[in-house]
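Field reference: sequence -> structure
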Amino acid sequence: MTAGTHGSVRAPSASPSELPVRGRVTARGTIERITIAPAAATPSFSALARLDRNAGHEGVHLVWMGQRRVPGVEAGVELRFEGMVSRVGGTPTVYNPRYEIIGRPDEQ
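Structure field:
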């Protein structure tokens, strides 16, 4: 369900094309990869979450500013996340999202 480009998306019914250009999003995805900033850089930890839907999939970049690690977030983990999405270089990006781990690779 969306309300224009500033609406809210609630998983699991939202398809990737329904992600707003800017606005609050709640979604569920699987972490494909993580990136840790070098020690000399400003601390940040990021992950690419893949949202699979009936019509395809889309990557959402999750960024935790000021963090070098985020407990439990690693490749293969399935999580639910919430936050404000905006497009950065054409990729949906959520800074400092709230998250809940809902599945780990070793539990499947």
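Note: Strands lie at 9-10, 22-36, 44-53, 56-65, 78-88, 91-95, 98-103.
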